[in-house]
């Protein structure tokens, strides 16, 4: 009888709790926070932890999408002089392009400038190299840490010699 009592006592104390959250679980509110691959923050309520031996099933989690505003960047260049200007962390593509042209034109001393590249929630870098006597320019637009590599890859793939980064990576990423 004592053995049976201890076995039953042991079995009743083996409650396993799980919350089913694949991200950061906040037990006070029963909320799970996940950042998806595009940088959006997703919150959903997983409820209180369920005991493994309670026999109840957990309801579907409620997904709450949080809209994080995008950020834009642009690069403008004067095709005659080669002088460029840029803008980062702007709230719209139009604002980024306006600021890049304004920066490039330098109050009229470098007119006219045109938009060479723009990016949304990403990074821009510029590589240049020589093809004969012609200077060629290539733009890399990727996620952080990859824009310079992309610009150099495009430059080399075009058969251009002496490829080098002339504008270091600049990023326009949403702020959480």
From TrEMBL:
Tell me where the signal peptide lies: 1-18
Q: Domain DUF4189 spans what residues? A: 72-168
Supply the alphabetized keyword list: Signal
Q: Which InterPro entries match?
A: DUF4189 (IPR025240)
Which domain of life does the UniProt lineage start with?
Answer: Bacteria
The protein, known as: DUF4189 domain-containing protein
**Native species:** Neisseria sicca ATCC 29256
